[in-house]
Amino acid sequence: MRFSVVIPAYREADRIGGTVKQLRSALADIAAEGGVEIIVVDDGSQDGTSAAALAAGVDQAVTLEANRGKGEAVRAGVRVSSGDVVAFTDADLAYAPDHLVVLLNEIESGSAVAIGDRRHSDSVSVTEPSRLRRAGSAVVTAVRVLLRLGDGSDSQCGLKAFSRPAAMILCDASVMKRFSFDVEVLFLAQRFGMTVKQVPVEVVNSDASSVRLMSDGWDLMVDMFRIRARALLGRYPKSSELPQSKHLP
User: Fold this and answer.
1) In this predicted structure, what is the pLDDT of residue 130?
2) Residue 156 pLDDT grade (very low, low, confident, very high; cuts 50, 70, 90)
3) Which one is the CATH code of 3-236: 3.30.2350.10, 3.30.390.50, 3.90.550.10, 3.40.630.10?
4) For residue 126, what pLDDT is reported?
5) Which of these, 17, 65, 107, 199, has the minimum number of CB atoms within 10 Å of its CB?
């Protein structure tokens, strides 16, 4: 399998079918040249998200019994995937499916990790984010830099792709369950010496997002301190401690 796309989904029964259809269309050429699988992870929804995904023809629908958060949902999807390249994107398709092809090409060109960057000089916002969302994003970046969890890159862009070795290493090493998962995997990618490529995106900021800016933002802040504490206490592996078979070039 050439490409696996994981979609973490919570209460997305009404639109997951359209999401799967758009992904199939955008990735048709990739499907014909190596294969594509689409995996929806229903993160404890009570609205029939898994059933709707299966009805839409998704390749796999993974159902978590309770809502565990984005990190747990992505890890569950990655672990059942089989693609040489593994990506994840949001169920609301805030980033057009064509962006996935760009990320795939970056990984196949030699990068271990490729991420969308809303701050890239070539990125475009079709709809402007709210002031609160912009302020929250700026605070997240500032805290990341302060805690030495990464540079000023856009950690919270919901569009990322990994080579299969990188995906499995990061799934095994990461522990954060919710939105801090994105910060953690980028921190670990840099810790392990992985090449991270940032690409411009066109983003549509949806009012229907499942992100709760205040409560989720607070949880993210707390978790970033937890990530730093885990690192200081030696609870993350070092690159030299990874199994030799998993080392990246």
Assistant:
1) 73
2) confident
3) 3.90.550.10
4) 76
5) 65
